[in-house]
Amino acid sequence: MHERIFFNTEIEFEHGGLLGAGTNDGALKIEQATLDFQLEDWLIFRGGAILVPVGRLNVLHDSDFRDTTARPLFTRVIVPSTWMEPGAGFYGTLYPDDHWEIFYEAYVLQGLIDGLTDGNGLRGARPSLGKDNNNGKALTTRVGMSPFIGLELGLGGYYSAFDAAGDKHLGMLVADLNWSHGPFEVLGEAGLVLHSPTTYRSGEEDIALDGSMWGYYLEGHYHFFPDFLKGSWLESDLSQPVFTLVGRVSQIDTNTRRFNQHDRTELVLGLNYRPIPSTVFKIEYQWLLNNEAVSRGDWQRESHNNQLIASVAVGF
Known about the structure:
With about 325 residues, this protein is mainly beta. It has a domain at about 50-235. It has helices at about 75, 290-295, 300-305, and strands spanning about 5-15, 25-40, 45-50, 85-95, 100-110, 140-150, 150-160, 170-180, 185-195, 200, 205-210, 215-225, 240-255, 265-275, 280-290, 305-315. The longest helix is centred in the C-terminal third of the chain and has 5 residues, at about 290-295. The radius of gyration is 21 Å and the shape is globular.
């Protein structure tokens, strides 16, 4: 549009999209749509449907960026990616010296709705892009810093009323890490959610939700290309093909006042192949452990949650 004005949008066709009346679980939706107006080198206005900047994965969530098919358990429940809200604010990058970079984002957003649950965390509380359910607004920010190439640390926050009356509030802090050195890479996020006591409906019963929520994930990558495959069809005429071995652990607790089947641990081991940076073939095995069942030694029940996942992702 202009060197100082930039429009970005992401439209998702999920599970084939939803056409006509639709009979499946597909969807056609906007995941982000923003207009950026650069005021200074370090100050850029942004308005529209904004990805909430708590952690890195909610913003950098595209399948061709990630090295696993399934997103971490933490970023599906505590930070319910993909999580966007209507709003406006500012972002930019500062360079204090030749080595340091400091990134910031700060927005006023629409805010959550009354959909917190034990088990799904904040996932059902994400708002629509339409009418707000109360007169309150959410505040969110993330500050990231990179003291040298290969390391980025970030801290994000979010605060919102979530009930129709605007009397119940939720606050969140999320720290994130991205470190790389040679073929090794480590990334992760950890977060804590504090909220006003509330209830949610489960069948015919009102369930109390009166504890905090927390979770994390830590993921390690090892990038390599075996010598014995050099010159094969997996390498020839391709731009920097690479294999990546992936390991991940993630845990969540969506109500610290209760120890039940919703307290979960996820373990993932996977391998992927990128013939070019924007195309990736992935395979992984996922163990999803119910912490309560594990504490009782009920391993037969746990084996039913395990799954083998494979996918192909392309960015264009």
